[in-house]
Amino acid sequence: MKILEVIQDTNQTICDNIEANKILNDRGFLSQNILPQLRNLVEHCSMYMVLRQKGLDDNITLEDAKKTIPSIPDKISTISKEFRFIKKFHDSLQITKSHYTHDKNNSERLMLKYYEYLLLLKKLCRDKFGLNILGNLHKFPLYLDKNLDEYYEKILSKLDNFTDFRLANSNNKGRYYVWKIKPVFIKEEIIYEITLTNATDNVSKFSRIVAFSKTKISDNYAIKAKLEKSKILIKNKNMPIFIISEIETSIRPCEFDNFARIFDKRQKKGSTTEIERINKYITKNDYNLVDIICFDDNKYNEFKQDIKANNIQIHFLEILDKCRQICLNNAKGTNILKYLLYRMNNKVIKDQILKQKNDREYKPNHILSDLYLQYESIPFDKMPFASSLCGHNPKISDLFECIDYKNREHEFLAKFIVGNIENNGVLYTKENELSNFSNLPILIDKFNNLLYKDGEKQQLRKICEWKDNYCIKSYETDIINILKILKELSKQGLDDYEEFANNWIEDNINKIDDETKVEIIKKLFIKSKVAFVYGAAGTGKSTLANHISNLYNSKKQIFLAQTHPAIENIKSKVQNANSSNTYTIAKIVKSKQKFKCDLLFIDECSTVSNVDMVQILNKVDFEQLVLIGDTYQIEAIKYGVWFDIAREFLPKHCQFKLEKPYRTQDDDLLRFWKCVRKFKQDDTIDEFGVWGKYFLNLDEKNDEIFHKQHDDEVVLCLNYDGLYGVNNLNKFLQIANKNPSFEIGNFEFKVDDPILFVDNNFFISDLHNNLKGRIINIVDQNEQNELYFEIEVDKIFEENHSFTAGLKLISKNDTKSIVGFSVDKNINTDNDDEQEKLPFMLAYAVSIHKSQGLEYESVKIVITREMEENITHSIFYTAITRSKKYLKIYWSPETQRHIIKNFNIKNNRIDVSILKAKEQI
After folding, report:
1. I need a surface site. Which of 48, 85, 242, 366 has the fewest CB within 10 A?
2. pLDDT, tens digit, for every residue of 685-694?
């Protein structure tokens, strides 16, 4: 067949499937049918394009075309910048063919990912070559919320009238890291919703900026760009938006300098001209530094000549020469260098540089080609798809872009098992879930044999098998150790505890608010030295902790929790808790010292990972242990099932439950919480949308979201971008605040704005992460180029509190304090920095995850269709229990049904049965 006929046949198959979906209405099945056709379409279109570009006969057979032009996608990517996406598309198709199971869910996700590539391919074929393909691509179901159409169409109109995307030498530019790029499709046009942060080392992930462009940009390097303010009319209000223009790659000077330290401990400064030219070359040609060091000799020399023209001072070119030599020879350190060159992120680079020990001579790492790289980075160099760098876990999509994935099946196997543990909470992966991998025993042996033999930590990464169930040894070892320690504690109680407790209760009976707590205190340590306290949000777990603490008033006590709000909650509700005996989990885990106490309390146990719990049990020497939490709340970020499954292994006499809620007195709200909490697959909670008035149609009632109805009110959502993302909602809700606006970079603040303090702010020891506050005064200090803020915070400082320099206490009452501090208007992105300069964020709207531990009088939850896959039962339950009185959930009926239908409460029965059978715990 002629090559054009082959293209048209493949195209017809794809279009017929899309057309048939009007009847079938099954996007998963449609995606499964289309995916196998895409690789042929891309390869054959590439052949046709190369033939046309080279002026060769395009009216030839497919076989003759293959002989004429080998390695088609590689060839076409060299034509010009606008063709380069074809190679990325082809590479991605090859990867997914090998490493993804094509069930309906995976196929849908892949097709949504590839839709952008298909649209770009369609336009390129039509505009450059007059080749019409994918005529009905617009009929592929994207399932976007209808109310978003108007929003994005108005943004597209603004972008069409704003054509200034040229590169320019403008002084009015900011430097940013690209956090996320989301393509949005409108009538076969693509616009890009780009989420940015200031390009500093420790910028909070919550301090994000959303801007729009019709030009796709790279997300692996820092960029310099103008953010032009504009407005669109939505809901009869002028919504401010940013249009991003004059975009150029702008790797930070400190990133060049710190990368050079990998080769030379003396930190030489590269010349400004050299750095500017390298950035400009990357911008103009759409190459990354890994592409450049892998050029053929002629092209690499041309690049070098471009950079050092007119005999400028060079330094980084010499570093690239050394990288090229190591990487082309595939010497030790190659994979680390490639990844760092691909991302060039200052914090990540600094974390990999070998640290000098005081008692040793500073020598390079002899295992990694005598580079000044951490020894802890060696596993990543050996198996990058199954290992992490120091303090950094690379995205697999980035690894595919810069490191060869071939012959690494053993790494993907390990990664799959780890992903099942970390993402799904499943310790043991069944053999039938690994059907995509062939020769399992060979792959397992290969992976295990590549682990460092003399390193205990590395040996714990082994893949283990037990009766066709597979796990990673470290995860299994951690949970076994935790359960054994807790079980030992549960075997014997305290002598005379019953009499001791009854005497205390008799003296304090008027202080205890319900009989359940009395009964728990009576039994707490009669038969066990560990007590588990399970309870829903607002059932008085902290109050019970206060009673237990007062029971042991003369004993030394330590209180631990995962988050700062939980720590502050403990200090406010437990009389014996103060700054000297309350710690975050991270503080204990990172500390090199041991801790000792008589009574240890751990709050928010469901958020404590297994690996952290092992550290706590090793680092804290205690006599009695009280474990408090709710297994239905958002779980630990890392694998953390110990608190949930412990009740399957420990005796009932050490397990206690609180059920009476105190956070709200609203009976309807309480019933709704209980219904969601106890949800079973055949249950329905739809009726709550009628009689409880909690469910509202997003299309019909969306205007309500933008009107604040109560003083203590928050809007919760899962995403930061989009019309109903945190950024937009904060801007929209701030419009109603008529106070004057003050700017720091691209952020605006007004008196009366609600705010939350962020992690890693300069005053973190005083104003903890997630501390609620309200701006009560702003003064523009022009001479110092600073803004002075006075903020009322939900915190009472102790009389002897020593404040961080620059922060002062203005006043306080029984429940709140007012503090004052100044913030620099300018943000320096050239140099190394350690802390976030802007200590807080607007908080009219907050992400559901950030709201954990907070409570509000009124809560509005917004869930769009594109986010429905990410709303788990625990996330939904956490969101609805932030409310003390008023609750509204805005979603479409389809989204409501999808989420409720797919509520999967994690069940660890299989893991529990294997642990019991295998370990005899």
Report:
1. 366
2. 766 655 457 8
Q: Is residue 749 domain-shared with residue 854, that is, in the same domain? A: yes
For the chain, how many structural domains are there in total?
6
Taking alpha carbons only, the member of 474, 520, 480, 475 closest to residue 497 is: 520
Q: What is the CATH number of the domain that holds 506?
A: 3.40.50.300
Report the phi/psi class of residue 310: left, alpha or beta, with left for phi > 0 and alpha for psi in -120 to 50: left
Q: Global pTM?
A: 0.89
**pLDDT-wise least confident of 626-635, 802-811, 828-837, 877-886:** 828-837
Residues ≥6 apart with Cβ < 8 Å to 760: 202, 204, 769, 835, 836
359, pLDDT greater than 70:
no
H-helix or E-strand spanning residue 9 = helix 3-24
Write down the residue that tokens 């050490």 correspond to. Answer: 654
Residues whose CB falls within 8 Å of the CB of residue 480, separated by 6 or more in sequence, listed in order: 915, 919, 921
Pairing of strands 883-891, 463-466: unpaired
Domain boundary among 434, 466, 498: 466
Q: Kindly state whether residue 230 falls inside one of the protein's structural domains.
A: yes
Beta bridge partners of 823: 787
Neighbours of 419 (CB within 10 A): 14
d(CA 243, CA 210) in angstroms, rounded, equals: 9
Query: Is residue 864 in a domain?
Result: yes
- Nearest CA-CA partner of 620 in 596, 602, 639, 598: 596
For residue 469, the SS3 value is strand
Contact 460, 474 (CB under 8 A): yes
> Greater confidence, 651 or 208?
651
- Does 276 lie in the same domain as 241? no
- Residue 473, domain member (yes or no): no
Shared-domain flag, residues 213 and 272: no
Distance (Å, whole) CA 267 – CA 278: 19
Q: Is 379 exposed, middle or buried (0-12, 13-18, 19+ CB in 10 A)?
A: buried
* Per-residue pLDDT at 167: 43
Say if residue 129 is in the same domain as residue 218.
Answer: no
Domain residue limits at 811: 669-901
Among 234, 249, 264, the domain boundary falls at 249
Same-domain status, 604 and 618: yes
φ, ψ dihedrals at 282, nearest 5°? -65, -45
How is residue 679 written in tokens? 């949800």
Write the burial class of residue 256 (CB in 10 Å: 0-12 exposed, 13-18 middle, 19+ buried).
buried
Q: CA 299 → CA 54, 83, 284, distances in Å?
A: 20, 18, 15
Domain annotation covers residue 623: yes
Tokens 């909650």 locate to 569
Distances (CA, A) of 347 to 34, 220, 350, 769: 41, 14, 5, 21
Report residue 163's pLDDT band, with 50, 70 and 90 as the boundaries: low
Do 415 and 433 sit in the same domain of this protein? yes
**Three-state secondary-structure class, residue 33:** helix
- Over residues 865-914, the pLDDT tens digits come to 888 888 989 999 999 999 999 999 999 888 888 888 888 777 789 999 99
CA pair distance 833, 830, nearest whole angstrom: 9
Q: Are residues 222 and 322 in the same domain?
A: no
pLDDT at 683: 61
Strands 557-561 and 599-602: parallel
pLDDT tens digits, one per residue of 573-590:
999 998 889 999 999 999
CB 853 within 8 A of CB 770: yes
Q: What is the pLDDT of residues 663-717, one digit of tens each?
A: 778 888 888 888 888 887 666 676 665 545 789 988 888 888 888 888 899 999 9
Contacts for 753 with CB less than 8 Å, ≥ 6 apart: 734, 737, 774, 775, 842, 843, 844
Contact 104, 31 (CB under 8 A): yes
Give the three-state DSSP class for 197: strand
Neighbours of 454 (CB within 10 A): 6
